[in-house]
Specification:
The chain is mainly alpha-helical and 474 residues long. It has a single domain (61-472), classed as Alpha/alpha barrel (Glycosyltransferase). The protein is 51% helix and 7% strand. It has helices spanning 3-18, 20-28, 61-78, 114-130, 133-159, 169-172, 177-192, 200-213, 246-261, 264-281, 306-322, 330-345, 367-382, 388-403, 425-429, 441-457; strands spanning 83-85, 102-104, 241-243, 282-283, 288-289, 292-294, 354-355, 365-366, 458-463, 466-472. The protein has a two-stranded antiparallel ribbon with strand order 1-2. Strands 3-6 form a two-stranded antiparallel sheet. A two-stranded antiparallel sheet has the order 4-5. A hairpin with a 2-residue loop joins strand 9 and strand 10. The protein is globular. InterPro entries: 6-hairpin_glycosidase_sf, 6hp_glycosidase-like_sf, Glyco_hydro_88, PolySaccharide_Degr_Enz. This is Glycoside hydrolase family 88 protein. One of its GO terms (molecular function) is hydrolase activity. Pfam families: Glyco_hydro_88.
Amino acid sequence: MNASKLRRPLIGMLVAGLFPVALNVSAQEAPAAQEKGPAAADAMLHALEVKYPTPYRAMDAAEVKAVLDRVFTYLDRTTPAEIINKTTGAPVTDLSSADPEAVLKPGDFRLTSYEWGVTYSGMLAAGAATGDKRYTDYVMKRHQLLSDLTKAYYPAVKADPKNSHAPIKSFLNPHALDDAGALCHSFMKAKLAGSAVDYSQMIGICGDFVTKKEYRLKDGTLARGGPDGNGGAKMRPLPNTLWLDDLFMGVPTMAYMGKTTGERKYYDDAVKQVVQFSKRMFNPRLGIFMHGYVEGMRDHPEMHWARANGWALMAMVEVLEVLPKDHKGYNAVLEQLRAHIKGLASYQTKEGFWHQLIDRNDSYQETSATAIYTYAIARAVNRGYVDAQMYGPMANLAWNAVATKVTGNGQIEGICVGTGMAFDPAFYYFRPTSVKAAHGYGPTLLAGAEIIEMNKKFKFGLNDSGLMFQGVRQ
């Protein structure tokens, strides 16, 4: 090798040794501009105003509350907490004994439906997030009425379930998780929050049904379509059918029974349900759940109905809210929640919604499911289950989408009506929507409340035109 070739690397090493900082900086800094003078005509095009179909920003607490207040005003006006004589319409004020003529005063919605169990939970959350006592009072007034009616009518219903009368008989004599679970969940949430209502008798009724009386498969999984009492099986819609909806209708009640009683068997049962439903019904490739599963069938109707996925998602965040972190099943529930949220993320539309059938873009965009996802994802961000950087902007966009569906008088548009399960897409595609579908009101209250909490905790704003996480608020 000649001398000149040896000298080149030696000189390079010497220069690098003498000027290490200078060389390091020059390697990282952008090169100097090659042109001087006026900016090119396209230099600021990236900053042009965009006409987004859904507001593209994080709402502040006052804006969110304004939406919730419209919903509250409508519901407070149209869901009277009153008992009347069914013949005369006169108020019934003495609830110390059972009156066979007494009924709940009609309103737009029923006070003892599973949808209203969710609404009570939503009102509690909205009251906590906003500090507005009207939301909490709404729940206390109606819970107190239900407690009074239970004391007056339950002895007769228990003695003669078939022939007795009661204004809230579906709750006092439940036949399905829909009759008991979501209401029971709201009772225990209120009790843990310090409500003075006497819930003992009501929780005894609904908690006992959910944990001991609802039909189950041989491995203990909650199911529908059990024995019909005449030697056959109920068709719901087929024997031994799992409905994804039932993860919410029963499992949070189990977990909260664990919290209120201190008995770990309820936590064990709640975790078992999440794990066993997920094993049968979660599609890990798609990251979402099927709506229905029939035990014993080779193939199953993989209809990925949005609201049912919402019930499953909400069930998991509610279980994690009270499940002890040292429980052996805690991580299994947490990882299933994370997998579901990650899966759902890929299906959010450009307007911020999710479709009625999640993975079928030609099905309509549905409000109640979007509200449930907003709540559950924002709750997961707030509790640290998932990254705020990834999922906070998504939750804000979803909330903004839901808010566009709240009318000036507080009704909510785009809510799919009550829905059974089916084995074909047409059933789900053509389910009607209605502002009188109760399923969207509680989720909207929950969503708004959780978004308020999330945006108080974390800052989100525009960075290079994109809505981004900007840190934890001090």
